[in-house]
Amino acid sequence: CPSLERNWPVTSQPLALLIVFGFLWAVAYAILPSELSHPTGGLMRLVFLFVGAQACGILVSLTGLPDMLGMLFWGVLYANVGWADFTGYERVEVFLREMALVNIMLLAGLGLDYAALRSLFRFIMQLTLVPTVAEVLAVAVLSHYLLDLPWLWGVLLGLVETAISPNVVVTVLLRLKEERLGLNKGIHTLIIAMTSCNDVLAIFLFGVILGVIFSTGDLTSQILQGPIGIVIGLVYGSLCGLALLYVPSYHAKYTNGLRFAMAALAGTLSVVGSKKVGYPSAGALGCIVTAFVAGTGWRKRPPTECNEVSMYLDLLWKFLKPVSFSLIGKEVNFSVLAGETVLYGAITLLVAVLLRLIFSYLSTMGSELSWKEKAYVTLSGFPKATVQAALGPAALDLARSLNATDEYARAQTVLIVTVLAIILTAPLGALLMIKLAPRWLKRSTDERTDQYS
């Protein structure tokens, strides 16, 4: 089958993960007690949620749509047929979501190239701040009047929705690089830098607002929650990033593997430890700063050694991707889903995204790009998926862990609109970026790569 043969390099990887899952379950069945390894137990239900999500992702990817839609669909199906009962393993579920968030934040931090940021600083900041502010404000206002969310919750929802999907964007850019499209004016570096900065800003501010919303202290402590969290995150991330520059030695045999393990554990401790000390806003920032400081130092010493760590993190994401999207889909229960929430959520999302595209295009004014290239850079901010899957359930998890019943319904609304954002923008954004690239971007005829890469 020509289609299967063409897609085999891509589909073979998740298929290999399915086989790994199969081996792990067989080993578990052989050595663990029956209550842990039986398919009807809570632990195995959780495992089969991820296995089914991976399988659905493979099937959907064969149609040309993003595999994350299949994973999301499996999670929704799993919950609405009554299989999503993970009694006794709720903390495992929350931890897996946190690991997915850690993975995304580390990749975002490593994706910030200091040299590219310095060369295109004004342009990147313009493309990051102006559309982000416009979209967050639009979501906050519309959700306040249409979804009856308080202003802080509206801003929180806006920060979730404004993040650009690095998974969708980078996948499309890799395909364009093979076809040598858009390499002549640093468009690839510009889009990747804009995506990384946008995600870093959204994740950081999301952590700050989430910490303020769920702060249980007096007014003074609530006001200081954000600034203290910022200081803790910056100090922790800088120290961990500097440590990764010198430990292990550059001449050690397993340097990159040890760096990956240390970076992953440092990021995990940043997220779970910040909650333990009462400043959850420090978690995301500490994780991102760790990766940025370490990655910047690694790039200065040839060969570019952070590429290896990024590769390991990307491999880890292959495991955590079905976890993240199936778990967010699992929270969509049709029996309690209000049609009004879906309708007003879709209106809020579409108006905000339209405003983002308008302000994003206006932000490209004054550059050397043609109008088609400006339109393509603008379009790259449309897909929402990866960061939404990580951030969307965070408020719901925190409300459950703190037993904050008053905030539960609002957190559920944030999650529903997040799911809508993934469904409405991820496949359409990927399709438009692929189909319009040959028309809007120039094809390079020489072997020159992106001038800023």
UniProtKB/TrEMBL annotation:
It is found in: Membrane. One of its GO terms (cellular component) is membrane. It is a multi-pass membrane protein. Residues 56-425 form the Cation/H+ exchanger transmembrane domain. The chain crosses the membrane at residues 15-34, 46-74, 94-116, 123-145, 151-174, 186-214, 226-247, 341-363, 414-434. Signal peptide: none annotated. It comes from the Eukaryota. GO terms for biological process: proton transmembrane transport. Keywords: Membrane, Transmembrane, Transmembrane helix. One of its GO terms (molecular function) is antiporter activity. Belongs to the monovalent cation:proton antiporter 1 (CPA1) transporter (TC 2.A.36) family. This is Cation/H+ exchanger transmembrane domain-containing protein.
